[in-house]
Design brief:
The protein is of the alpha/beta class. The protein is built from five helices and eleven strands, in the order H-E-E-E-E-E-E-H-E-H-E-H-E-E-E-H.
């Protein structure tokens, strides 16, 4: 303290520090969130490697997914089939890397009581459509423009996959891009269930 009981800083300096430090802290947290999410929109995680998220089997939330051409698809429409539900975006590099694996597996499992469903998130519709054309995807894909399906499934990043049993239960959940062997192993195990 200076003589006379005055603080070494003026009132204006204290106000600037009082406002400036929290603002800088907020900007640092925002920058960290953007960096740690790979720059994905809104700080959404991009899952770089595959990992299983352990959980109890539970009923798969129903949804109404609008497909190109105006048709719709719901989980109820797929009753009696094993379902691989994939959340993805065209700008997501792990999604791009995984796309040929999913397209090939779909061709292998077509006609075997398995359905693949793609749910596009946080994307430009034109970019999503171009991506599907380039990758040769033949299975149903739609856009979850408002994120309602993603929220109901608890999606935290992309790619993210849910494997649903014939009786409508979520059996397994994976984050990150699948490799062909793991994908086949999961589908074969679910197909062998009564």
């Amino acid at each position: 303290m200076r003589s006379g009981g005055r603080l070494p800083f003026g009132r204006r300096t204290l106000i600037i520090l009082g406002v400036g430090i929290p603002v800088l802290a907020f900007l640092a947290v925002l920058a960290w969130a953007s960096f740690s999410s790979g720059g994905a929109p809104g700080g959404i995680a991009v899952n770089e490697s595959v990992a299983e998220v352990r959980q109890e089997r539970k009923a798969a939330p129903n949804f109404l997914l609008e497909l190109p051409g105006g048709e719709t698809l719901s989980i109820e429409d797929l009753g009696g089939k094993v379902v691989m539900l994939d959340f993805w975006a065209s700008w997501c590099q792990p999604c791009r890397d995984e796309a040929p694996v999913l397209a090939q597996a779909y061709r292998e499992y077509r006609g075997r009581d398995v359905e693949f469903v793609g749910v596009n998130l946080w994307d430009n519709p034109g970019d999503a459509e171009l991506f599907l054309q380039q990758q040769g995807h033949e299975y149903p894909n739609g856009i979850d423009a408002e994120g309602k399906i993603a929220i109901s499934y608890g999606v935290r990043g992309i790619p993210e996959k849910f494997f649903i049993t014939r009786d409508g239960l979520i059996a397994r959940k994976f984050t990150g891009p699948m490799n062909p062997d793991l994908l086949r192993q999961i589908l074969d195990a679910l197909l062998s269930e009564p």
